[in-house]
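Hey, I'm writing a tutorial for new members on how sequence and structure tokens pair up, and I'd like a real worked example in the thread rather than a made-up one. If someone can provide the structure for the chain below, I'll link this post from the tutorial.
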Amino acid sequence: MKAGILAELRASDGYVSGQELCKKFGVSRTAIWKAINQLKQTGYEIEAVQNRGYHIVSTPDILNENELRSIRKTEWLGNLICYEPVMGSTNTRAMQLAEEGAPHGTIVVTDRQENGRGRRGRKWETPAGAAIAMTYLLRPEIDPNNASMLTLVAAMAVARGIEDETGLRVGIKWPNDIVIHAKKVSGILTEMSAQADYVNHVVVGIGINVHIDLFPEELQDIATSLFLELGIKINRAALIERICEYFEAYYDVFLQTEDLSAIAKQYDAYMVNRNQQVRVLDPKEAYEGTARGITDRGELLVDTWECRKRVSSGEVSVRGIYGYI
């Protein structure tokens, strides 16, 4: 009910009477009063005026199911929201929920992630109140060979969402790093459970540095946060919702062809290492070339001195010749 009350207060330009809320939720005025007080205790500033009702004045930067539900605008993504204040890994929790039968579109969110994972086994921790750690649980009816492209779909959604909410110019370092001013602000990890010709489920994990104001010395040259770039703090729940809206739209487009043909040009426009010299760390033999963009399957096109090569994100890493980009 608290999520519903928040939604009603946000939808109104003025005050919402206690009687309207009672009728809407089928409860007593006392129940509404208690719910309003509980919301106030968690940081919401709600004004109560006799004979007028309730009015929401300000919203705290808070991550919980009530907040996320009250601002949700998506059709299927987020039908089920699993929020826990502390988790080891949102991807691991999403995998567990998938095995338990959780539906397509479930979102797993935590305020503090203690044992998150990045690509190639790297650790990704998110301090309480300072970042976004969330995972989408998907059950797409697609060829398992096409599931890895969802990483690039998510990268587009994150880039667009951050731009909309902050006004910052954002780029994508192929395939899945979101960067601002040549520093990483977000990473994406996609994992899949599948049979030979059938996808059981896919989880898409997204981590974003939001309010972090200081990084360890070894990361200061390659990592940043929205706070460090913007100079002010933003509402994390609002950013999550905006990213969800973009992801749902891009995902539905992807399903029509099971490739990236509809968004490849858009992706290329965001790619910071396009037309840049890169070093491809292929396990067989590292080589250098010029990145040119992506194929309809999300492969990176790299022109070397001898030929054009297609690089799969699952096989290699790509770095700039002189650094991270």
